[in-house]
Write a structure and sequence with these properties.
Number of helices: 6
Largest sheet: 3 strands, antiparallel
Order of helices and strands: HHHHEHHEE
Strand order of the largest sheet: 1-3-2
Distance between the termini: 40 Å
Shape: globular
Structural class: alpha+beta
Length: 116
């Protein structure tokens, strides 16, 4: 069975990892499969899907987060976290992701975002 077949929800025929319950609390086997489905630059392909990112942000409570905190367990599927962090920042600043904005750089040099 290939990754896409496995990740597809058999009831809805939509990607399993796009379900809000899976985004909020991803099973280990799903994280393992997503970590194998990388783009050429080592970023999980799901991180490039705007709809998935919007769902990820929508399930978070309003508040202040680093990218690592927003992504939670998903963050560890990314082999190029610093590289993708810059891309995520650009997506946020462009307004493509909805109710999120860049607030400041934290003392540990990570960026802080506000989800509202």
């Amino acid at each position: 069975m290939n990754i896409q077949t496995y990740l597809e929800d058999t009831n809805t025929k939509s990607p399993y990892h796009h379900r809000e319950d899976v985004i909020a609390d991803p099973p280990v086997h799903t994280l393992e499969l997503v970590s194998q489905d990388l783009t050429d630059d080592g970023v999980p392909s799901v991180f490039r899907k705007i709809d998935w990112l919007r769902k990820l942000i929508a399930i978070k409570e309003p508040g202040f987060y680093s990218a690592k905190e927003i992504f939670g367990d998903w963050w560890y599927t990314n082999r190029r976290a610093e590289y993708y962090g810059k891309e995520f920042k650009r997506l946020v600043q462009s307004g493509q992701l909805g109710n999120i904005r860049l607030v400041r750089k934290r003392t540990n040099q990570s960026l802080e975002y506000e989800i509202y």
